[in-house]
Give the backbone structure.
Amino acid sequence: MDINLPALFGQLLIGLINGSFYALLSLGLAVIFGMLNIINFAHGAQYMMGAFAAYFLLQFAGLNYWWALIVAPVLVGGVGILIERAFLQWLYKLDHLYGLLLTFGLALVIQGLFRHQYGSSGLPYQIPPQLTGVRDLGFTFLPNYRAWVVVFSLAVCLGTWFMIEKTRLGAYLRAATENPTLVRAFGINVPRMITLTYGFGVGLAALAGVMAAPIYAVNPTMGADIIIVVFAVVVIGGMGSIMGAIVTGFGLGIVEGLTKYFFPEASNTVIFVIMVIVLVTRPAGLFGRAA
């Protein structure tokens, strides 16, 4: 079989871009599940809300992409905090199924509202002028914006991992999930910490939405198209595993890109085949811990 190197590297680049979004979204899911034990099925809708927030900030407030990277996650994270206070706080002591059903219903409501208002055709969002153009790497052309997405996603993922695993704040967060009574004894407001953690996870989804807007356009169904794959990534990496979400997200994006080149017919199912294999051989996931 003759290998067309430009085509192969092109598919690897696409896989790396997709992997950046898989990693960032699965990281938010892992943070929420690891700290709150809630399976947040509304994550895809919150990713879509981040893209729409960037679009609204540009259209109605005149704030460009760089401002949207900061403001949109804060706004959507604030909506997440309201959701946690109004609905999710009553479900923490119940089975995971209740949280999944509630967030699934919220996702359908949010997506339906945006689709009713804006349709399904998608709204354009321009690449910032500083990141237009491409670089000739010799073996392929690399768009500057896509390079930025990969580098910035990796930086955010590693920064989040460092905060949770290596700082005092992260130690408090992890302790609050294991023994909240003990953490309260140190004078820490555990409910507020849980609320802010959910808001932070939602903010990560919104950040991914802002970054995706110039590539995929702003579409009410963009979250529904990706959330199933992201859940598969989280399961493969291990529910609640921060490093598992990062490594598996980028890794499966590359695997998906390779599959599109060598066996295109399987590119839409390869991640789910890997998920089945992992669940059979290692139910806790590649980086997860058995209950």
Summary: Strands lie at 134-136, 141-143. Residues 15 and 257 are 4 Å apart (CA to CA).
